[in-house]
Write a structure and sequence with these properties.
CATH superfamily of the largest domain in chain B: P-loop containing nucleotide triphosphate hydrolases
Largest interface: A-B, 56 and 64 residues
Largest sheet of chain A: 2 strands, antiparallel
CATH architecture of chain A: Orthogonal Bundle
Radius of gyration of chain B: 25 Å
Structural class of chain A: mainly alpha
Largest sheet of chain B: 6 strands, mixed
Strand content of chain B: 15-25%
Distance between the termini of chain A: 17 Å
Number of helices of chain A: 14
Number of domains of chain B: 3
Strand order of the largest sheet of chain B: 6-9-10-3-11-12
Order of helices and strands of chain A: HHHHHHHEEHHHHHHH
Oligomer: heterodimer
CATH topology of the largest domain in chain B: Rossmann fold
Helix content of chain B: 25-40%
CATH class of chain A: Mainly Alpha
Number of helices of chain B: 18
CATH class of the largest domain in chain B: Alpha Beta
Chain lengths: 362, 504
Amino acid sequence: MSRAVAVAGTGKAARRRLGATELVWLALAGVLVIGAILVALDDQNLFSIANTRDILSRSSLLGFVAIGQTLVILCRSLDLSVGYVMALSSLIAATTMNGDPARVPLAIVAVLLVAGGIGLCNGLIVSVLKVNPFIATLGVGLIIKGYLDTEYQGPAGAVPSSFQQFGFSRIGPVPLSTLVMLAVAVAGILFLRKTRTGYHMFAVGGSADVARLSGIRTGRVLVTAHVLCSIAAGIAGLLIAARFGTGSALVYNSGYDLESIAAVVLGGTLLLGGRGGIAGTIAGVLILAVLDTVFNILAVDPFFKDVLRGTIIVAAVAIYARRQIDRKASRVRFGGDGGSGGTAPPEPRPDQPTPELAGGSR
Amino acid sequence: MSGVASPATTLLRMSGIEKSFLGVQVLHGVDLDLRAGEVHALIGENGAGKSTLMKILAGVYQADGGTVQLDGETVAFEHPLLAQQAGVSTVFQEFNLLPERTVAENVFLGREPRRNRLVDAGRMNADTAALLDDLGLTWLRPETRVSSLSVAGQQIVEIVKALSYDARIISMDEPTAALADEEVELLYRLIAKLKERGVAILYVSHRLKEIFDLSDRVTILKDGALVDTVATSDITSDELVRKMVGRPIASFFPDKLPGTEAGDVRLEIRQGGNEQLDGIDLDVRGGEIVALAGLQGSGRTEIAHALFGVDRFTRGTVRLDGRPLTARTPRQAVRAGLALVTEDRKGEGLVLNQSIAANARLVLDAVLPRRASQGARRIPGILSSLELVSRGSSQEVRFLSGGNQQKVVLAKWLATEPKVIVLDEPTRGIDVGAKERVYTLMRELSAQGVAILMISSELPEVIGMADRIVVLRDGRVAGELPAGADEETVMALATGHETEGTKR
C-alpha cells in the first residue's frame, strides 16, 4: 500500500496570499500616490494641512455609516435606511438640545435609542418576517422620510457651541470626529474578532444553514447587526448636527446609503456576506475621500467626477470577483495537476504506527 | 457519559424505522445496530434508503415509525444539533463548513471558548491543534482557512468537528466520493484511529473495496427494506452484490416496434474527457437505445452535460451524424440536433410558474426562432400523443403531477425534432402510467431513427429498455454489456467488483 499523501496546502497556508484587506490598503496607497502626483502637477500639495483635514473630515461622516453597514453586509443583509436615520438623528439631536448645553447628554441618549429602535425594526422585519433586506430597509427608510417631510420643512433646533466642537475641533490636523470614528472602527474590529456575536456574523453571512446547524441563533445575530448599524448612522446624524449647528431633514438626499455600501464593497467585504471586515471598509472610505478631495482640488467637472467614482467602484469589485473564481466547487478527477490541490506531502511521522486496516476484520 | 466503551457494547439500536415522503414509503421497518469501536457499512443501490436512514439518525428527518435507542434510552432527535450534543455526528456529502473561516473557527463554531466574555482565540486554536495532533494530523493547522484545503482536508475538518463534540457515533455519507486515491488512504488511517477510541462508525458507501477494507459488519438495504446484516468476514463480494440487487422485473417495458433497426452511428464520442471524465468512447446508432448505468457520481450526468456544452469535453472528439460537434453552449448543442431531458425536472427542465404552452415552446423560441412558429404548431399534437392530462395549455406547469410535467419537458424537446436525445433519469418520480408512456415514446422515437442515450439509476429500466448498456465507474467506461444482461453483472461492473481483467 502506498504511504499516505497529503491533502492540505501546507505551503499555501504558511505563505498567506495577500488578503483582501491588505489589497485595499495598498490600493489606498496607490490612490494617494497617483492623487499626489496629479495634484503636484497642478502645483499644489495633496498633503498640505488643509487638504489632509479635508480628506479626514470627509471620511469621518461616511466612516460611521460604513462601519455599521459593514456589519449588516457581513450578515448578508443590507441597510438602505441609513440616510434617513442620519437625517432624523440630526433633527432629534438639534431639537432636543435646543441650544442648551446641559441637554446634550439627553440628546445623545435619545438619538442612540431612536436609532437603535429603528435598527431593531429593520432587523426584526428581515429576520422574523423574512422580508428581503433591500425592501425592508427601503420601506422603513420611506416611512422615516414621510415623517421628516411632513414634520420638518427646513432646518430645526439649535446645537450649543459646546457640542459643535464635535464637528469642528481638531487635534493637530486630525479632526476630533475622525478620531471618534477611528475609535468606533477599532471597537467594531474588536467586536468582530473577539466576541461570539462577531464570530457568528461571519457564520450567518457565510451560510445561514451552517450557522443554524451549529446552534447559532441566526435571527438574534442579524438583529444585533441591524441595531448596531442604525446606531452608527445615528452617530453620523449627531456629527451632522454638530457641523451644521442645526438639524436638517435634507441630509437623506446626500446619498450616504449607497455610498456607504460602495465603501464597504470597495473595502473588500463580500456583498453576499461572510467575508470582509471593518479595516477594509475604513480603507474604502478613505479611498473615496481622497478621490473627492483630489477632484475638488483639480476642480474636476462634477459629472466626470461621478463617472470616475462609478468606474473605480465597479472596477474594484470586478477585481475581487476575479480573485474569487479560483475556488473550486467540485473535485477535479482528471486534471493536469493530479487534482488534490495540495502541495508538499508531509511524510508520515516515523514514530506514528501506521495501523493495519483490513487485517483486523478478515 | 462514558468516553470509551468496551468493544461489542451496543451503542445504538434502530428498530423498525419507517419513513415516507409524500405518500411514498422509502423505509420499511429497517433495523440497525451499532457497536462501539466498529465500522458498520451500509450498502445498497441508488435509492435503497441509505441516505434517508442516515438522516433520521442525524436528526435531519424524523422517522414515521420505529424507535432509536442510544445507550438503551429511546431518543428522537428533532434537530441535528440535538443529535450532535448526544454524541451522534454526521459527515454529510455536502460540507457544513464556512470556507472563509479558519479550521479552528469552523470546529468550534457556535461554541467558541471564551475568557472574560471575549472569544479566546488562543485556546480555540490550541484545542483544535490538540485534536488534530491526537489524530496524527500534524500537517493541518488550526489557523488555515478552510477554502484553501482540498476536499479531503475539508472532510477531515468535518470529522474533527464531529469529534470535538465528543462524538461516539460518526456516520459518513460516501466519504470517499470526492477523494483521490491517496486521500482515501488518509481517511482510512483516520477511521482506524477513531475505531481505537471506541467510536462507532456508520459508513455509507457504494464501493465494495472500501467496505471489505474497512468494515466489521455490513447492512444491506434494498428498496427501503433491510436485506441482511452480516459480519463482513462472512460474506464474499459476490454474495454482497447479489443481496443488493435482484427484484422481479416489471413486465411493462414495451417491446420494440416493428421496423426498428439500428442504423448508422449518429452520436460518436472518442476519447472524450474533461475534469470529471476520461477516455469516454461511446457510439449511439439511430434507432438504438443505449443506457448509461453506474452509481451516482460515476460520470453519467457529466457525459450528458459534456455533450450539451455545459461542462464540455476538453479532450477527444464528438461527432453527430459524422459532423464534428463542438458545443460550447447548450444553444449550439440544440442547433446541432441534440436534446437533453435533465434529471432535475423542476429546476432545470421547466419554468414552473409559466403555462404548459409557454414551457413547450421554450426551446423553440429561445434557440430556433425561425422555426418556432412552425414547430409550435406541432406542440398540441405532441402533447396529446403523450396523453398529457391538464386543464388546458394555459395551466401553469407547477400544478401538474410529476408525470405530466415530464411530458411537457419531453414535448418541449420533441418540438425541436432532435437527432439525438439524452434522457437523464427520465422516469424519476413519476407514476407508473406516465412511466409506460415514456417507455413507449422511447420506442416510437427509435423506430423513427432517433438515437437515444438513457441515463438511469433503475436497473430494471436499464435492462428492460436498452439495446446496449454502458457502465461507468469513476468517470471512465467500466465496460459494455449487451441487452439482457442481468442486474448483478451491471452492479458488479459499477461497483468495481471483478473488474480486474475486464478493463484497465
